[in-house]
Design goal:
The structure is a single chain. The protein is 50% helix and 14% strand. The protein is α/β, with parallel strands linked by helices and 245 residues long. A five-stranded mixed β-sheet has the order 3-2-1-4-5, sandwiched between helices. Helix 4 crosses helix 7 and helix 5 packs across helix 6.
Amino acid sequence: MGQDSTAAAAEALDTPAAPPARRAARRNRRRRSQSGRRLFAFDRDIGARWVAGADEAGRGSLAGPLVAGAVLFDLERLTLSDRRALSRLNDSKQHTEEAREELYPLVLRAACATAIVSRCVRGIDSRGLHVTNLDALRSSLQRVARPGTVCLVDGFRVPPFEHEQRAVVDGDCRSAAIAAASVLAKVTRDRYMRRAAELHPQWEFEANVGYSTPEHRAAIAEHGVSPLHRMSFQSIAYTQLRLAP
């Protein structure tokens, strides 16, 4: 072994190990980078060129619209650059708000087609949440699918339509198309609720985006409900106001 090699080996032995926090951060980065590859592998295993995914945001909120997103990927034309850009792709709930905002334009760039369908509070109250949810998911898929597309839906099947569809349990953690759709739906809805907070500041929608939190329930107790609150929900916050049906 030459002197240079010996010196390098000695230096390596003297180099202290990375702190545990840094090692954990590296592991988390590797895990996140592997997530997108795993999700795209799931979609490729379906065996179709065109794979569309749909997911919704706002299903369990007390206030605000239900928003469904759909994304169509052409798996034969998806570039290596696109796959690398979406390597962190996962269920939108697993991402921070900042990470979702970063992924949003990357999804738009990589997808062949995208769609957003919003259903208002009055529609949810009149038709019911589940029916409204299925209709929004199907409508979003109809806007992006083309002949030969396999449509993937998170959790359950939507009413039959002209394209093949499959329900994927925990689909936003398994399918790239569904995970991408969940990012679009979540970002779109959160932006809407932050704008709504300017018109209805008492309920702090910029923080809770319509979901039930202690602060949100306290605001309902103090101020009542806004035009964005869903009165068809059986919420204790409403019961305390004697507003529940």
